[in-house]
Amino acid sequence: MSRTWWRGAAIYQVYLRSFADGNGDGCGDLAGLRSRLGYLKDLGIDAVWLNPWYPSPMADGGYDVADYRDIEPVFGTLAEAEAFIAEAHEHGIKVIIDVVPNHSSTASAWFQEALADPRARDRFWFRDEPNGWSSIFGGPAWTQVPDGQWYLHLFAPEQPDLNWDNPEVHREFEDVLRFWFDRGVDGFRVDSAALLVKSDDAYEDLDGVHDVYRRWREIADEYGDERGERVLIGEVWLPDQERFARYLRPDELHTAFNFDFLSCPWDPAELRRVIDLTLATHLPIGAPPTWVLSNHDVTRPVTRYGRADTGFQHGGRLHGSPSDPELGRRRARAAALLAMALPGGVYVYQGEELGLPEVEDLPDEVRQDPMFARSGGANPGRDGCRVPLPWSGEEPPFGFGGPGPSAPPWLPQPEGWRKLTAQAQLADLDSMLTLYRSALRLRRDLLGDGTLTWLPSEAGVLAFRRESGLVCVSNLGPVAVPLPPGELLLASGPVEGGALPPDTTAWVTGGPGPGVSGR
Ligand code: NOJ
C-alpha cells in the first residue's frame, strides 16, 4: 500500500463496546475484536478506527478518559492492545484510535489533583462564576465543586474541559500521541477538534487551535515510514466551508469527516449540491474528501432513509416516526454504492454493512447515553445505533459473546436480528453484507482518491465517471432510467432489461466516452 494510503482508504469504525465480546461479560472487548479480524479482512477495508479504548468511568461511552496511556480493563490490557495492532497489521489493516483532547474525566489524576488543591486548577477551566454557557448534552455547562468554584464541561459534568492556554496540556497530548505512535498506531481521530481553544466568550473554531494541529502534524510526519504516513482525522463540525478547510491545510490535519454528506437528505439536488461543495472545498487545497453515512452518534441509515423526512435526525429528531424498512434498505444500499464511488476516503460504521436498523424501542432503564438523562428523557440519545452486533445463531446474543455461554449484551438486541446476523448474510447473495464486500473489493482497484467528471443525466439521476473508467449512476427519481452502455459491475438492486429502478445505484464500466480507460 502506498505511503498516502489514507487518501482513498475505506475505514471501518469499531465501537468496541458493541463489536464482539471475547470473554462473555456482555461488553465488547479487544479479545472479541481480535477474533473477528478475519471478518474485517474479508470485508475489504483498509483501516479500522476504534472509539476510545482508554480507562474510563463510561459516563459518555469512553469519551470521558481517565488515563490516556492505558486500556480500559473491561476492554483488555495494554499488552492486548499491542497484540491487536500487530495482528491487524498482519491482516493488512491499519489502526486508527480516538484521541479526546477537548476534555478529560473527573476520574483523571489531573482533575482529582485540581479538586484537592485549588492551585492545581489551571489545566482545566475553573472560574468563580459560571458564564451562562449550556452543555452540548443539555443543561448548564458549569458544575460547582464543594469549595464554591465552578468548572466548565461542554459535554457531561464528568467531562471537564481542558485548558489549552496551559503549555502543560500541549506537552501532555504531544506525549500521548508519541506513546501510541510508538506502539504502532497509524493515526488518530481527533474528537471535538474545533473546540479545544477557548476565550471567555467563545469556544468554537478559535484561531489558536491551528497551532495545536501544526505541532501534531510535525509529530505525525516524524513517524511516517515504509508502512505509510501516520494520519490525523478531525471531527470538525463547522457549517462554514472556508473555516472547515483551514483544518486541512497541508501542515495540519490530513482529513476530516464530511458531516454535510452524513446529514444530507435522500434528494438528488441536495446530494449534488453537497458533493459539489465538498469537492470545491477539498480539491483546491489538495486534501481528499471523506464520505460518511453513519457513525455512533446518529440514526442508522436504513431507518433514516425509510422515513418521509430523510434529513438529519440528530438529537432524537423524528425518533419513533414511521420508517418503511424496505424503502430504507433500498436507499441505504444505493447510498453505500454512491459514497464508495466518490473520490476520497469512505467510512463504514460497524453494523452499516449488515443493514442494521436503529433500535428505537430500547427500554428507558437500559439507555446509557448521557443525552437521554440530561434532557430528562426528551432526547432518546444515541444508544439505538450502538446495540451490539449480531454475528450468528437464532437468538440473542447472536454470537456477540463468542461460542460459549455469555451474559446478556449491555444493550438488548431485537429478536428480529436473526435475519441480519453476519453468518446469515454471508450465505445470501442479495444481502447488505454481500453488497458491501463486493463493493469494497471493486473499490480497491477502481475507485478511491482522485476526482470525478459529472455526466449528463435525466432529472433525479446522479451520474459521474471516475478516472478508472467506472461510471456510477444513482437513480433518485420516481421512474426507472436506462443504464449507460458498458458492463454492469455491481448494482444495489435488481437491474432488468437495461433499466435502473428508482432508489438504485449501479457501477458500470467499459462504455464509450471521455476518460474511459477500458478494462
Ligand atoms: C464526539 C463523539 O463522537 C461523541 O460520541 C462524544 O459524545 C462527543 N464528541 C464528546 O466527546
Descriptive report:
Residues 500-519 are annotated as: Disordered. Belongs to the glycosyl hydrolase 13 family. This is Glycoside hydrolase family 13 protein. Residues 510-519 have a biased composition (Gly residues). The chain is an alpha/beta fold. It folds into three domains: 5-102 and 167-440, Alpha-Beta Barrel (TIM Barrel); 109-152, Oligo-1,6-glucosidase, domain 2 (Alpha-Beta Complex); 451-509, Immunoglobulin-like. The protein has 14 helices and 18 strands. The strands form four sheets. It has an eight-stranded parallel sheet with strand order 9-8-7-3-2-1-11-10. A five-stranded antiparallel sheet has the order 12-13-14-18-16. It has a three-stranded antiparallel sheet with strand order 4-6-5, with no helix packed on it. Strand 2 (47-50), helix 3 (78-90) and strand 3 (94-99) form a beta-alpha-beta unit. Helix 5 (167-182) runs parallel beside helix 6 (209-223) and helix 11 runs parallel beside helix 14 (432-446). The longest helix has 17 residues, at 325-341. It is globular and about 75 Å long. The structure holds 1-deoxynojirimycin (NOJ). Residues 60, 63, 100, 155, 191-192, 235, 296-297 line the site of 1-deoxynojirimycin.
